[in-house]
Amino acid sequence: MARIVILTGAGISAESGLGTFRDEDGLWTQYDLEDVATPEGFARNPELVHDFYNARRRGLLEARPNAAHHALARLETALPAQVLIVTQNIDDLHEQAGSENLIHMHGELLRAHCTECGGSFEMREDLSPERPCLQCREIGGMRPSVVWFGEMPLEMPRIWNEIRDADLFVSIGTSGNVYPAAAFVQDAGRAGVATLELNLEKTSNDFDESRQGQASVIVPAWVDEVLRDLEGSEI
Ligand code: APR
Fold first, then answer.
1. Is residue 146 lining ligand 1, measured as CB closer than 6 Å?
2. Domains of the chain
């Protein structure tokens, strides 16, 4: 079980050039999430949904981790098996930065699966309704392996257990609007786990401590502080 469980959201990838959802220029101000991020939307107009994720996948292939992703990877290296990242993000910037103990609770943009045969694939190219499944060759079954609204996020039992057994729960770059992730801070508090928020703005959720700023600045500063305290305590 990890001593530090870290929830990340779109805000940690904003400075890497990937859009957030609810900021003034966020994705949900440009698209109706009902059309592009629900199973009903996909059934209604798969072309529109593929176009939405193809554009985000192409953007991701150009994106690189920022100092916040690298700081969390440094923390995991310094505290082997003591750090778990639970990300709402479907990008691979934590992996690119070197983080390994990682759960993508909303799935991964660089993976796709077939609803006909269950085949699961790494996917770095555009998808379309005409693209046959790489395994069963069926047309129309391929979809991005991301969790849409109305679908169950991944690995929830493990996430809840990890949060309840942690010493510290940290929330980085998320507005705390989407459940079940938005309730993790309450789950932690009920279990007596200390809670810290690192975000551009203070959210309405109730953390023991909340620091505001750009993730690329306040996350490395926090990691340096944790490692300094650790050195101090080990002497
Ligand atoms: N540094 C730190 N925080 C930032 C930065 C930054 N550079 N830029 C934006 N933020 C903060 C915003 O203040 C906001 O609180 O990141 C948060 C982004 O919130 P949202 O856009 O709502 O993204 P997120 O919380 O990750 O959304 C959760 O909603 O649509 C679903 O599945 C989608 O995983 C997503 C989920």
1. no
2. 1-17+65-106+153-235 (3.40.50.1220), 19-62+108-146 (3.30.1600.10)
